[in-house]
Design goal:
About 45% of the residues lie in helices and about 15% in strands. It has helices spanning about 1-10, 20-25, 30-35, 40-45, 50-55, 60-70, 85-90, 125-140, 150-160, 185-190, 210-220, 235-245, 260-270, 280-295, 310-320, 325-335, 340-350, and strands spanning about 75-80, 95-100, 110-115, 140-145, 165-170, 195, 225, 250, 275, 325, 355, 360-365. Helix 11 (about 210-220) crosses helix 12 (about 235-245) and helix 14 (about 280-295) crosses helix 17 (about 340-350).
Length: about 375
């Protein structure tokens, strides 16, 4: 009943509106919202057309969506679902639900870094994106991008086979891949990571949907790294949203003669962190990693206590051991989730307590 109620809400419209949150707070859950009197729902701020569609849903549309969800690896992550990504849930413009395709939904709650940039990137920009994504992915960061051509594509490919893996956020229906030539890449991401969209199956790509998509990329991530962007690039929208949400903004500088570097230079003038290698990103993300693990510690320093570690970190170190150990083994030995282990390991690595090894394994340092 809950899934059906969510589907009715999604087909009614205004799915990114805070007015739905107001209705949910008033009635407690989506089932109660769907059952509420129309006049009461209008009083919460929902449009009359939205309430009318909620009361009299499109049966054919609901049936098509249910058929899509019945397929392997397909799921709907609603706001009340524990699997809904926590960082995105705390952002101001979190959608009511994410349609997801893939076999690793846990990637949505691992530490993520958005990597974005020009669709018309230079060969050097593409190489930089691939190299940064691969290096950061090997340190446990999940690379999140929009599956566009250019920098997005290079970033996904660089991270695809790393420990952190990759997340793709679409600006159209979850069942459609745009651009079409990224179809094979999308299949690889679905097999090794996860693809998400706020747009239901059958929604064609439209220009206004891609800036809206960017808020989800920013909301999922601890920070945004911009590699090659013109002054009018949509990547600057992602960076602006990230800054407004208190996330870190990074930019790779380029030649003053490269028009695709001017957006990055603009961000740097506005206070973005200049990035020359992966360590520039990792060192800046430590405070946000701590915040993702425990939002109550926002005002506390991110560095681990010295000379003794906090109890949960000491327990994690025991689970790691001095032999090369995979994250799956560490999770099995501990009482922590994969997302918690990934975040804590990255902090432990920054503090010099563990070492990241090839093949997605870790070992303690003496």
């Amino acid at each position: 009943m809950s899934v059906e109620a969510w589907l009715r809400a999604l087909q009614a419209g205004q799915t990114a509106s805070p007015l739905w949150n107001r209705a949910l707070e008033r009635y407690g859950d989506i089932v109660a919202v769907v059952a509420a009197a129309p006049a009461d729902l209008v009083a919460t701020g929902l449009r009359e057309q939205t309430v009318e569609r909620l009361r009299h849903p499109n049966a054919d549309l609901l049936s098509a969506w249910q058929d899509w969800l019945a397929r392997p690896g397909h799921r709907l992550l609603t706001l009340d679902n524990p699997a809904y990504p926590q960082l995105l849930r705390r952002s101001a413009a979190a959608p009511l639900a994410l349609w997801a395709r893939g076999h690793h939904p846990d990637k949505l709650d691992t530490p993520q870094l958005a990597m974005v940039g020009s669709r018309n990137a230079t060969s050097g920009g593409m190489a930089n994106a691939h190299a940064f994504a691969e290096a950061l992915g090997n340190h446990g960061l999940t690379i999140t991008s929009g599956l566009a051509t250019g920098i997005d594509t290079a970033s996904h490919r660089g991270a695809l086979n790393t420990m952190g893996g990759t997340v793709a956020v679409l600006g159209n229906g979850i069942d459609l891949i745009y651009p079409h030539n990224n179809g094979p890449l999308a299949e690889e991401i679905a097999a090794k990571g996860i693809i998400v969209s706020e747009y239901p199956p059958g929604t064609p790509p439209q220009r206004h949907q891609f800036p809206a998509r960017n808020r989800i990329i920013a909301g999922l991530s601890l920070g945004v790294l911009v590699i090659e962007a013109g002054r009018q690039s949509g990547s600057l929208i992602t960076a602006r949203i990230a800054g407004e949400q208190g996330r870190e903004v990074f930019a790779v500088p380029g030649s003053i003669h490269n028009p695709m570097a001017r957006g990055c230079h603009q961000l740097l003038r506005q206070g973005a962190k200049l990035v020359e290698d992966a360590n520039d990103v990792l060192s800046e993300l430590a405070p946000l990693l701590q915040l993702q693990l425990d939002p109550k510690k926002a005002a506390e320093p991110a560095s681990l206590p010295a000379p003794t570690l906090a109890a949960e970190y000491s327990q994690l170190l025991e689970a790691v051991g001095f032999d090369p150990t995979s994250i799956n083994t560490i999770v099995a030995r501990s009482t922590l989730t994969t997302a918690e282990v990934s975040s804590m390991l990255l902090l432990l690595e920054l503090e010099g307590h563990v070492e990241a090894l090839p093949g997605g394994r870790y070992s303690r340092r003496a």
